[in-house]
Design a protein that fits this description.
By secondary structure, the chain is mostly helical. The chain has three helices and no strands. The protein is 90% helix and 0% strand.
Length: 71
């Protein structure tokens, strides 16, 4: 649940920043909206996958050494 909350929060922040930067560069709100929607959607999906990978790594680390590592 925390990962979902972080992902949604990140998405909202990223959409806002991407739109603002695209608008500042283009001075065209339609282009800024297109850029501001597409890139953050892909980046948010990448963030969610990244968070899941780190959570799995943390869980493995918490389990301690495996039998293969102790041999």
């Amino acid at each position: 649940m925390r990962t979902l909350q972080k992902t949604l929060s990140y998405a909202a922040m990223h959409l806002t920043v991407a739109f603002a930067v695209a608008f500042a560069l283009t001075r065209n709100w339609q282009a800024a909206l297109a850029i501001g929607m597409v890139e953050p959607l892909f980046q948010t999906a990448a963030f969610a996958l990244h968070e899941r990978a780190w959570a799995r790594a943390d869980a493995r680390r918490a389990q301690g050494p495996t039998l293969a590592a102790s041999s």
